[in-house]
Design brief:
Elements: H1 5-16, H2 18-23, E1 28-31, E2 42-45, E3 48-52, E4 57-68, E5 71-84, E6 88-103, E7 106-116, E8 121-132, E9 135-145, E10 150-154, E11 171-173
Antiparallel strand pairs: 1-10, 2-4, 3-4, 4-5, 5-6, 6-7, 7-8, 8-9, 9-10, 9-11
Length: about 180
């Protein structure tokens, strides 16, 4: 079982230095998606599919919905890069247009997402929001390492044409559970 989200975020903030995170636009870290089975089959549905066999890719568009284990990914358009090595092996999924990723009560959204299945890393860019329950982080870029469960949000948006609304800073809201006082 992983640490609760808030504790992981706070410990990440403390290790990065709270002043560095807020005043310098540094990284905010959280535990997210730990234990995801990136070797599970990838299933999808969409309005349209175009197989570009010579380029070893598939372009899927219109209400794209992808599942892998308990992870779901929704977007407007997706390109799937694969190789045929005695069987189809997916290497990378590029999603764009209102990208949403969910697993349990953990959610992430952004303008663009790149899922590298070989390194087990999802990178989201542009107007990124990461949430678990009422806890929320926003920024320009989110990197989720599915193997370690570590996620990093920063103020950068490294793709051409991808912008953020937070001015290059990470912002967040964390809920504090109500505590009973001891007499």
């Amino acid at each position: 079982m992983t640490k609760p989200f808030l504790i992981a975020v706070v410990s990440g903030l403390l290790s990065a230095g709270v002043m560095g995170v807020y005043s310098l636009g540094g990284d905010a870290q959280a535990q997210l998606m730990r234990g995801h089975d990136s070797g599970a089959p990838v299933n999808f549905s969409a309005d349209r599919i175009e197989v570009q066999d010579r380029a070893d890719r598939v372009v899927v568009s219109g209400n794209v919905h992808v599942t892998q284990g308990s992870l779901t990914l929704d977007s407007t358009r997706m390109t799937v890069a694969y190789r045929n090595a005695g069987g189809i092996e997916i290497d990378r999924i590029d999603a764009s247009g209102n990208v949403r990723i969910a697993r349990g009560n953990e959610r992430a959204r952004g303008d663009v997402a790149i899922y590298d299945l070989n390194s087990r890393v999802i990178t989201m860019l542009g107007n990124v929001e990461l949430s678990q329950g009422a806890n929320r982080l926003t920024g320009g870029r989110l990197i989720m390492d599915l193997q370690s469960g570590r996620s990093t949000v920063d103020g950068r948006a490294a793709a051409a044409g991808v912008t953020g609304t937070n001015g290059g800073r990470v912002t967040g809201t964390f809920t504090v559970p109500e505590r009973t006082s001891n007499p």
